[in-house]
Specification:
The complex is a heterodimer of chains A (486) and B (466). Helices cover 59% and strands 7% of the residues of chain A. Chain A is built from 17 helices and 8 strands. In chain A, the strands form 2 sheets. Chain A has a 5-stranded parallel beta sheet with strand order 4-8-7-6-5, with helices on one face. A two-stranded parallel sheet of chain A has the order 1-2. In chain A, helix 1 crosses helix 4 and helix 4 packs antiparallel against helix 7. The two termini of chain A are 84 Å apart. By secondary structure, chain B is α/β, with parallel strands linked by helices. In chain B, strands 2-3-1-4-5-6 form a 6-stranded mixed beta sheet, sandwiched between helices. In chain B, strands 7-9-8 form a 3-stranded antiparallel beta sheet. The longest helix of chain B is centred in the middle third of the chain and has 34 residues. Classes of the chains: A alpha/beta (486), B alpha/beta (466). At the A-B interface, helix 2, helix 6, helix 8, helix 13 and strand 3 of A face strand 2, helix 2, helix 8, helix 9 and strand 8 of B. Strand 3 of chain A pairs antiparallel with strand 2 of chain B.
Chain lengths: 486, 466
């Protein structure tokens, strides 16, 4: 496995997480710019393009903060691997030291020796592989038991807790990361196992070289030596053709059976004969213990490497990145929120409409037809309305002239001007110009009441009246009111 | 008047007729200030649509006419003949550029002098008034190609009388509801802009194509985001070390609360990301998108609305059980006579029908140093994946269909007699059932995951029953 690829992958994934905080549009524009500069014909889409993109990001010094995560995690993985190998060696030495114990009385029981040294680890290995491939068929209790006994899982848990990178959860929150985790934890397990078998082999070799060992077999079952010999021969099949020395013959098997009740001290000749088992024992540990673990370590390393490449080729973040690199960037460049008009804090002057003293009644922008207006005003007790319909279409001079004419005709009683207007239309500056002209003609004292009407010629809603009131309040005229028609 | 290299459209009209709403919707920009208070827009604001850096069209949001009568009077006084009218408009702007009385008119007429097309906006929910004629006459004087857009603000319907009036000044009149126009209507309008000037059609077609491709990409990106959220939340667990003196129930409750909180936070984060995909950058999170979506994920009401009915659960349980069982058949090379699938279906169906009533799985695990670890989660309730998926679907629908002009909270209800998943086609529901089961069990590889994304994409493309 390329550690630099893993460290880059971790850095990229970590950075992409943080990059989510950047507005999408900014990411699209940045990545599309890089995407266009990549020679897509010569670089494989993923992880080639992703790595090329990362190089561009690094060149632009955009990724300084999260860069350490990958390197740190890779260093931790290397350290963990080393520690596991060492722990395995120590454990292997301890276990082998205990199992190879031979005091000169009963020989070392081959069944117990090989069962514990090789058989149990082999079962664990098969269990781990099943956990990896047919997880659903393994009962949960067994899965947990294996997890508790798995050194790989211990390290994985430690790394999951003590690093910010979420790469060690086997039941994945991200499937691709789950695959990485499963193979990486398996690789950790193999490191421990390799150390263990190396420790066992060291002890076995040292004891063979520097002490006298005698091996035998024993069973309560009514089994003859022929059957046991066949079993040992089957075990020795992988090497019997080219290493006959490590293949026990029938005579050796027959001579090696022992009963504890005999309580005999083995004579020297027998002890020497029983010592002939050592090549078989070493080969069994090597072939059924160390070699499968080395092979599995190679396979899991290759799978971790593959999973690492997939981390850079698949998954939501990477696919989204590839989309940003390849798809044309769509954007709307708009200005930031600009200045707005009316002061929302302006105080509104609101009043109820009282037409009893209306000196001049003006109808702005045809909110009421003349006949309608007369009838409407008559209903309100006003018999004579001054209808200045379509004033908004008249020139300023004519507006002023008309206003003066109405004011003249009502001199003495024009204490109040009432202006009806469309409530559903907003007050324009042209209307305010008109109000200024009204004020010019009638002076500052008379009250001007604006009465916005709705489509039914009734009072507008509170909300609309609020809009009108705020707009009129901005005129700074203390005798200008918005009135309700009710 | 000059010809602009990029098709440019000035959105003009009376104040408060929805000009900014139309721009916000077409430019997908929820930053555009929209208010019922007149005079909110004081300066012309340009929104340029670019595809891979190439500007394809520009929309200009402008202030409304404020003193149209005076403007028209001035123009009439300064134009000798009909052919002089565009020059008279340009002269008006030139003459009054520094005059605060005509600041709004200068802002709205400037892009027209520079060669922009006209999009004149009126409110078809309010009656036509003769005062609009002055504005239309001024626009006619500019000589620029123009289209009238009847926007609809409110319940009234005066479209016909508007059509009659507008038809006298505009060769193209369209109805466009800025608040509710869906994506297809927006695209259709954009194409319609091309009718104003043949020379603009190429760029506008490119823009349409870019927008359509972007739309598809958004659904895919949303599907990915939702799949990521499902993946996280369906496998999430909380663990705590259990000491001899600890009260197991208390720790279980504490871890359960933490689990629910983290799941809700992840879901909210996912919602936010989907909103950003659709450029709803400023959707107010304090204002609920819907009461349903913002409410606690674990309330009973939520599960009733978004989850499957018991019958549907049993069927999907049977389907996913059969899928798992068929794995056994496959391993046995058919010698099981499909018993695996049958038994799987039976167990899956029964399991889903009766359930355990347990929300999250609780386990006591052995720790590495002999201590005990209490694990709460993942959530095992049969309906949970469907509730998560249903909420994500509804949220996506609301966000994808929400116009950028809208500022109010959207309230959406699902019929009391139905739940959301009723409208999902059976085939898709079956596929989802299998994928969600795999996801819950952590049995998803890269291929399955891509399949799940495809299924979610198909779901997002389905209509939600309102």
């Amino acid at each position: 496995m390329s550690h630099s690829l893993l460290s880059t992958a971790i850095n990229i994934l970590q950075w992409l997480e943080e990059d989510n905080d950047l507005p999408y549009q900014d990411r699209v524009e940045r990545d599309r710019l890089i995407g266009k500069s990549l020679q897509t014909g010569t670089i494989e889409p993923a992880p080639g393009q992703v790595l090329a993109w990362w190089q561009a990001i690094e060149d632009a010094n955009q990724a300084p903060d999260s860069k350490q995560s990958g390197e740190r995690l890779v260093a931790l993985i290397s350290l963990a691997t080393g520690v596991l190998v060492l722990l395995g060696i120590v454990f292997g030495i301890g276990v082998a030291g205990a199992l190879f114990t031979y005091q000169g009385d009963d020989p070392v029981n081959l069944f117990a020796l090989l069962g514990v040294l090789v058989g149990l680890p082999l079962l664990f290995m098969i269990g781990s592989l099943m956990l990896l491939k047919v997880r659903a068929f393994i009962p949960a209790s067994m899965r947990h038991a294996m997890a508790v006994l798995s050194p790989g899982r211990w390290v994985g848990n430690y790394l999951a807790r003590h690093t910010s990178v979420n790469l060690f959860e086997t039941v994945s929150q991200r499937p691709l990361r789950g695959a990485f985790a499963r193979w990486q934890l398996l690789a950790f397990g193999q490191s421990f196992a390799i150390g263990y078998f190396v420790g066992v082999l060291i002890v076995a070799l040292l004891l063979v070289v520097f002490t006298d060992l005698a091996f035998g077999w024993s069973t309560t079952l009514e089994t003859d030596a022929q059957f046991v010999w066949r079993i040992f021969n089957v075990l020795a099949l992988p090497w019997s053709a080219w290493l006959p020395l490590a293949t026990p013959d029938l005579a050796l098997v027959e001579a090696s059976r022992f009963y504890r009740l005999e309580n005999n001290v083995i004579d020297v000749a027998t002890a020497a004969e029983l010592g002939r088992w050592w090549p078989f024992v070493l080969m069994t540990i090597l072939v059924y213990g160390l070699v499968p673990r080395v092979l599995l370590a190679v396979v899991s390393g290759w799978q971790v490497s593959r999973a690492t490449r997939r981390l850079l080729a698949e998954g939501p973040q990477i696919t989204a990145l590839l989309d940003r690199l390849r798809a044309p960037a769509v954007s709307f460049d708009g200005p930031e929120e600009g200045e707005t008009g009316t002061d929302p804090q302006a105080t509104a002057l609101l009043a109820q409409l009282d037409l009893s003293e209306a000196g001049v009644v003006i109808i702005w922008n045809g909110v009421l037809a003349e006949s309608e207006a007369q009838a409407w005003l008559a209903g309100k007790g006003v018999g004579d309305a001054a209808n200045i319909d379509a004033a908004e279409r008249q020139s300023a001079a004519i507006q002023r002239e008309n206003l003066q004419a109405y004011a003249q005709s009502r001199r003495g009683s024009a204490s109040r001007v009432v202006i009806f207007t469309k409530g559903w239309e907003p007050p324009l500056l042209a209307f305010f110009d008109y109000l200024e002209r009204v004020r010019e003609v009638i002076g500052n004292d008379p009250v001007i009441m604006i009465v916005p009407l709705d489509l039914e010629r009734q009072s507008i809603t509170e909300e609309d009246r609020e809009i009108w009131a705020r707009a009129l309040a901005a005129r700074d005229d203390p005798r200008l009111y918005v009135a309700s028609a009710v | 008047m000059t010809a602009l290299s990029v098709p440019t459209f000035a959105v003009v009209g009376h104040p408060n007729k929805g000009k900014s709403s139309i721009v916000a919707t077409l430019a997908e920009d929820d930053r555009v200030a929209i208010s019922r208070t007149p005079g909110t827009t004081r300066k012309a604001r340009r929104h340029t649509f670019t595809l891979d850096g190439e500007a394809l069209y520009t929309l200009v949001d402008t202030p409304g006419f404020q003193r149209p009568g005076e403007v028209l009077d001035w123009l009439k006084q300064h134009a000798g003949s009909a052919s002089d009218r565009p020059e008279a408009v340009a002269a008006f702007v030139e003459r009054h550029r520094e005059d605060p009385r005509f600041a709004d008119e200068c802002e709205l007429l400037t892009p027209l002098i520079e060669g922009a097309g006209i999009l004149y906006v009126v409110d078809g929910a309010k009656p036509y008034g003769p005062e609009y004629e002055i504005e239309m006459e001024i626009l006619q004087w500019t000589g620029r190609p123009r289209m009238a857009l009847i926007n609809l603000i409110g319940a009234g319907d005066y479209q016909e009388e508007w059509r009659h009036a507008l038809g006298q000044y505009f060769s193209l009149v369209r109805v466009f509801d800025a608040m509710h126009a869906d994506f297809d209507k927006r695209i259709s309008l954009l194409r319609g802009f091309g009718e104003l000037d043949q020379a603009w059609q190429g760029k506008l077609e490119a823009a349409v194509s870019g927008l359509q491709s972007e739309r598809r990409s958004r659904v895919t990106r949303s599907a990915r985001e939702i799949a990521g959220c499902l993946s996280d939340n369906l496998t999430r667990v909380e663990r705590g070390t259990l000491k001899d003196s600890d009260d197991v129930d208390q720790l279980k409750e504490k871890l359960g609360q933490k689990l629910r909180k983290k799941i809700s936070e992840r879901e909210q984060a996912s919602f936010k990301r989907v909103e950003r995909i659709y450029r709803h950058e400023h959707l107010d999170r304090d204002t609920p998108v819907t009461e349903i979506i913002e409410s606690d994920l674990f309330t009973r009401a939520n599960w009733e609305v978004f989850g499957l009915s018991q019958g549907q659960l049993a069927i999907t349980g049977a389907i996913s059980g059969a899928a798992a069982g068929s794995g056994v058949d496959l391993v046995l090379g058919g010698t099981s006579l499909l018993m695996g699938a049958g038994v799987g279906a039976l167990l899956g169906g029964l399991g889903a029908w009766f359930g355990t009533g347990e929300l999250a799985r609780v386990k006591v695990l052995g720790g590495t140093l002999g201590d005990r670890v209490l694990q709460v989660g993942p959530i095992r309730a049969q309906n949970f994946p469907w509730v998560l998926l249903g909420r994500a679907w509804l949220h996506h629908h609301l966000v994808a269909e929400r116009n950028h002009a809208r500022r109010e909270a959207v309230v959406m209800t699902v019929g009391a007699d139905n739940n959301l998943m009723d409208v999902v086609p059976d085939a898709l529901r079956k596929q989802l059932a299998i994928s969600l089961r795999r996801l819950s069990r952590g049995e998803v590889d890269g291929t399955n995951y891509e399949q799940l994304i495809g299924q979610i994409e198909a779901l997002l493309n389905s209509a939600v029953t309102e």
